[in-house]
Specification:
Elements (H helix, E strand, L loop, with lengths): L2 H24 L14 H4 L10 E2 L5 E10 L2 E6 L2 E4 L3 E7 L9 E2 L15 E6 L3 E6 L9 E6 L11 H14 L13 E2 L5 E8 L7 E3 L2 E4 L3 E7 L9 E2 L15 E6 L3 E6 L9 E6 L18 H30 L14 E2 L5 E2 L1
Protein name: Halocyanin domain-containing protein
Subcellular location: Membrane; Periplasm
Main location: membrane
Length: about 350
């Protein structure tokens, strides 16, 4: 693992790496022969064109997976996409330099690499517990850039993540049932979890004109900010929450933006008021099972108030020691002039020449 990965992810990997794998393992049930069907990976890899079953890498202490291998219409694959390893095996992801910048992010939050496109860059994670751990490249997940590590003889119900994630998806589907009926450009909820900011186009092509949001439905992590950006097409539009929690102005200007930060888990439906009947609807699904995003502090780095407290105490102590010395020196210097020095200490005595005696 590179030094940059170590500094960026040290706390998160040490604290959550083993625990995340253990949770995934506990959710999978009894052991059995590993196959795409028995490990529940068919659904996870439904849009991944280089998935051709689970590659057996058991017996190896270290396994390398390529990041940016040829797949999904370009350098947008992990190679191999799915591997079977023994508990205690270290998986090393190595960047090919193809397909732009990629990252490696576990669906259960147990590990996450930095975003990079540098050829030869590596990131590693050791899998201690049996289970099926799925992961993806966040910006190219919708294109099918997904992977999986099957640890041990795992079988059972893992598909796209933990059972908590599946429950959240089921709840979102229920919330959206019927909402997108008649919306021509709706093709499911687009996963944008892990991203601090997500952009949605206002006035995209759809519903017999430029009367759509694109993508119409996104899944985000708590704390993510959604930015709606106007295309300038289809006349004037607005973004109005179905529950009244947010509403933009009505505008048709290209490049105009409106943003809303979503802190609480839930499904937030919205419309363009004048074009709602035409199908101009959208939704933001805030996934409570996904790791929250934050601009500063926490695992993301930066100095927090808690980090700064010891520096404040130390600074105060130094100031308390230095201040009397500075006052004493000032008094001595002032006393060398023609006029008597002003006393700066209570009870100070003077020499015959008028100076303050320390």
């Amino acid at each position: 693992m590179s030094d940059s990965n170590a500094s960026t992810l040290a706390r998160r990997t040490v604290l959550r790496g083993v625990a995340g794998s253990a949770v995934a393992g506990a959710a999978l049930g009894s052991a059995g022969p590993v196959s795409a069907q028995s490990s529940g990976l068919d659904e996870w890899f439904s849009n991944t064109d280089n998935f051709d079953g689970v590659v057996d890498e058991t017996g190896a202490s270290e396994v390398t997976v390529s990041v940016g291998s040829e797949a999904n219409g370009g350098g947008f694959g992990f190679g191999p996409a799915a591997i079977n390893v023994d508990p205690g095996t270290t998986v090393v992801w190595e960047w090919t330099g193809n397909g732009g910048s990629h990252n490696v992010v576990a669906e259960d939050g147990s590990f996450e690499s930095e975003m990079t496109g540098e050829s030869g860059h590596t990131f590693s994670h050791t899998f201690e517990s049996e289970g099926v751990v799925t992961y993806a490249c966040v910006p190219h997940k919708a294109m099918g850039m997904k992977g999986a590590v099957v640890v041990g003889d795992a079988a059972g119900g893992a598909s796209g993540g933990s059972s908590t994630t599946e429950s959240a998806e089921a709840g979102a589907s229920e919330e959206l049932d019927g909402w997108f009926d008649g919306v021509s450009n709706y093709d499911g909820v687009v996963d944008r979890t892990g991203q601090p900011e997500v952009t949605v186009t206002v006035g995209a092509s759809g519903n017999n004109g430029n009367f759509a949001f694109a993508p119409p439905a996104v899944r985000v992590s708590p704390g993510a900010t959604v930015v709606w950006e106007w295309s300038g097409e289809g006349g004037s539009h607005n973004v109005a929450a179905d529950d009244g929690s947010f509403e933009s102005e009505m505008v048709g200007e290209s490049g105009h933006t409106f943003s809303q930060t979503f802190e609480e888990a839930g499904t937030y439906k919205y419309v363009c008021t004048p074009h709602e009947a035409m199908g101009m609807k959208g939704a933001v699904v805030v996934d409570g099972s996904a790791a929250a995003v934050s601009g500063t502090g926490g695992d993301g780095g930066g100095i927090t108030e808690e980090d700064f407290w010891p520096l404040s105490v130390a600074g105060s102590a130094v100031l308390a020691i230095v201040s009397p010395i500075l006052f004493g020196v000032t008094a001595w210097i002032a006393g060398t002039g023609d006029e008597p020095a002003v006393e700066h200490r209570v009870g100070a005595e003077r020499d015959t020449d008028g100076r303050v005696r320390t």
